């Protein structure tokens, strides 16, 4: 099985960016742990700060190249109809994840443009949100 994790804008700064909200661990080290925890899963990783690049990646992997996408679209979650359309267009299931509990934060973060076209949403569990999404994709394949 292979899954693709896509991180959107500013998530390249995990570990450095607002550690009180997002923690002090960089994503690379977390990804290494995830790959060790799930040796049976081929985990591809892509990060971009650019909306169109995220859409291109969804198109690239979404028609058979991946069994599922774990997507943290960052702030594009709250604004991007274009990413929502890309998720609707592809065949692969997409799980929306957030590190922070967006519902406990500013009101602007309470609305997601993409939740309705994703299989489900996981938010507020820190980096473990990604593992929980992966766990679902794994379970739903067995
Ligand atoms: C985030 C929450 C978003 O509101 C924010 O813009 C991010 C990160 C999260 O993982 O908690 O960049 O998606």
UniProtKB/TrEMBL annotation:
Xref: InterPro entries: DHquinase_II, DHquinase_II_CS, DHquinase_II_sf
Binding site for substrate: 72, 78, 85, 99-100, 109
Coiled-coil stretches noted in the UniProt entry, renumbered to this chain: none
Catalysed reaction equations from the record: 3-dehydroquinate = 3-dehydroshikimate + H2O
Positions marked as site (Transition state stabilizer): 17
Keywords on record: Amino-acid biosynthesis, Aromatic amino acid biosynthesis, Lyase
Residues annotated as the enzyme's active site: 22, 98
Record flagged with keyword NAD: no
Any single biological process term in GO: quinate catabolic process
Record-listed E.C. numbers: 4.2.1.10
Molecular function, one GO term: 3-dehydroquinate dehydratase activity
EC class (word): lyase
Pathway: Metabolic intermediate biosynthesis; chorismate biosynthesis; chorismate from D-erythrose 4-phosphate and phosphoenolpyruvate: step 3/7
Its biological purpose: Catalyzes a trans-dehydration via an enolate intermediate.
NCBIfam families, per database record: aroQ, PRK05395.1-2, PRK05395.1-3, PRK05395.1-4
Family statement: Belongs to the type-II 3-dehydroquinase family.
HAMAP family: AroQ
Subunit: Homododecamer.
Protein name: 3-dehydroquinate dehydratase
Species for this entry: Muribaculum gordoncarteri
Origin organism lineage: Bacteria, Pseudomonadati, Bacteroidota, Bacteroidia, Bacteroidales
Gene that specifies this protein: aroQ
């Amino acid at each position: 099985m292979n899954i693709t994790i896509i991180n959107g804008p500013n998530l390249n700064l995990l570990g450095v960016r607002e550690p009180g909200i997002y923690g002090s661990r960089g994503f690379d080290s977390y990804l290494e742990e995830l790959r060790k925890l799930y040796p049976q899963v081929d985990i591809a990783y892509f990060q971009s700060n650019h909306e169109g690049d995220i859409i291109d990646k969804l198109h690239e992997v979404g028609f058979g190249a991946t069994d599922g996408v774990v997507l943290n679209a960052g702030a594009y979650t709250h604004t991007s109809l274009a990413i929502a359309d890309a998720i609707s267009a592809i065949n692969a299931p997409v799980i929306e994840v957030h590190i922070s509990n967006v519902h406990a934060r500013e009101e602007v973060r309470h609305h997601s443009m993409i939740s309705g076209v994703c299989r489900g949403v996981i938010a507020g569990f820190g980096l473990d949100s990604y593992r929980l999404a992966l766990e679902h994709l794994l379970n739903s394949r067995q």
